[in-house]
Amino acid sequence: MEEASQLSKATVKKIVVKKLGKSKKSKVKSEKSKVKSQKLEVKSEKAKVKSEKLKSKSKVIHVRNFNKIVSPEAEQFLEEDSIEVVEKIKPNAVIKQRSAISSEVKDELEDIFDDKIISHPIASHGKLSHATKINDSKKNKPINIYKKIAVSFIFLTILLVAIIFYFLFVNVSIVLIPNQEDASNSLTLDVYDQQKNPVLNSSVILGMVKQVEVKESKTYQASNKEVLGQEVIGKVTIVNDYNKDQPLMATTRLLSSDNKLFRIKNTVIAPAGGQVEAEVYADEPSREMAIGPTKFTIPGLWAGMQDKIYGKSAVAMEYKEKVKTTIQQSDIDQAVNDLKIVLIAKTKEQVNNDFKDYDQVIYEIDNNSIAQQLDSKVGDEKKEFTLSIKAMVTVVAFADEKVFQLAKQKLASDLPNDKELANFSKKNIVYHLSSFDLKQGTAITNISFTGKMVLKKNAEIIDRKKLLGLTNEQLNQYLGSIPEIAGYEIKFSPSFIKKVPNLVDRIKVEVKR
Fold first, then answer.
1. Is 310 exposed, middle or buried (0-12, 13-18, 19+ CB in 10 A)?
2. Which backbone phi and psi does 218 adopt, to 5 degrees?
């Protein structure tokens, strides 16, 4: 017995695991073991009494933090003590027993599993005893806490994902179509005749400065008309179905079917069985007397003869006014102005043929050199007159490529900082001859030009800070109020988002050409 008491605790554990089922036969047990054994028997008797009252024959033992591998000795002990391991899970192990557990077994199991053993019986009919319910409620509290932690974690994860999604994917793209506005400017250019100024460098505008004589004549109508009278005249065929000739004197009356009176202008003789043509005129001339083809009776003849001798017309009568036309000063002035235009056109055609190597040719008539010749004078009674004119025309011709580049550079340099030149061509340049010196071979030319300007691609026409948080409707109203914008296109991403993000870097603005 002294030798057994000196064994280490580890050696005792092994002996208990191997020989605990035979503890009653062992003679080396200490007195302490006997006392424990007696207490175990008392508890066992009490447990048997309780088990008889309970119809359920099983109990559940929960062993926490199960991290031991059951040794063969422990398994043998469990089998001998009629205890069955139902399942093993980490961190808990569930053991089902068919008899009450002794305190000694409990102590040994605690040593084996390094944890406290919580034992409670299962009541009959599937209902838990009071001790079981208390234990389950203690067990469920950590589970509820874990559930709350898990739900909170999931919620925060979803919220974090939504925030990341918002910052990474939500954006709005705005494409602006700028208005094309007019931009005008002007320049003064000196043009040098290259034949008279051969030593000038290529930086100046070289061309041709000279005068040519041009002549032209044209016939014009006098405009001053004085109505002296009016007449209605025509021709009528006299038909004679009688057997005798019928002479008709001048002024013989002819009456139309609508009772309009005409007279024969000259004496005629209508031959028997024949006809003769006579000139007639209206007795009272007016526009209403210009009647169409019709039949005429001759009231001066005997009534029985009027159906045999009569008149008929094949064409309408003609209404005429007797007009006196004279030449006025206004007629001459108008003719001179018109002939100058004709003269310039003729000069242009002539010069274009003679100087077709030049891009631009400017013409201007020297008014001091104009000489005119008229075949009539003011007050002459004439329907028309002929005017001849000659003049000296100044011609300035030059190549326009250098002028175009100078104008383009001037136009672009004077634009606002946020604008750029969008459209400009040679057709947008207008030339005007200001002055010239034929002896020096120079001319001063004023040019004016107009182009189209638009916003630069990187122009900050929109303050993106003002767009933050705007709805689609508010954004449309804001963009529509900017005069420099002709049109725009808004694209939200994702498409179901209809509100501008609250971050400036999520707003993209592009100026489209």
1. buried
2. -160, 150
Instruction: Report if residue 106 sits inside a domain.
Output: yes
* Contact predicate 232/282, CB 8 Å: yes
- Using an 8 Å Cβ cutoff, are 347 and 210 in contact? no
pLDDT digit string (tens) for 25-46? 444 455 556 656 666 665 666 6
Total domain count, the chain: 4
Identity at 272, one-letter amino acid code: A
Rounded to two decimals, the pTM is 0.44
The helix or strand, by DSSP H or E, that contains position 98, with its residue range, turns out to be none
**Coil, helix or strand at residue 289:** helix
- How far apart CA 414 and CA 187 sit, in angstroms, is 12
Helix/strand/coil (H, E, C) string of 171-215?
A: EEEEEEEECCEEEEEEEEEEEEECCCCCCCCCCCEEEEEEEEEEE
Q: How far is CA 31 from CA 1, 5, 27, 110, 319, in A?
A: 10, 11, 10, 22, 168
Q: What's the average model confidence in pLDDT over 401-419?
A: 89
Q: Which residues form the domain of 185?
A: 170-222+327-513
Q: Which of 272, 300, 325 is the C-terminal boundary of a domain?
A: 325
Look up residue 122 and give its DSSP letter: B
- pLDDT (0 to 100) of residue 275: 94
Are 156 and 214 in a shared domain?
Answer: no
Shared domain for 57 and 147, answered yes or no, is no
Q: Are residues 471 and 338 in the same domain?
A: yes
Exposed (0-12), middle (13-18) or buried (19+): which is 484, by Cβ within 10 Å?
middle
pLDDT tens figures, 290-342: 999 999 999 999 888 999 999 999 999 999 888 888 888 888 889 888 888 88
Residues 234 and 204 in one domain: no
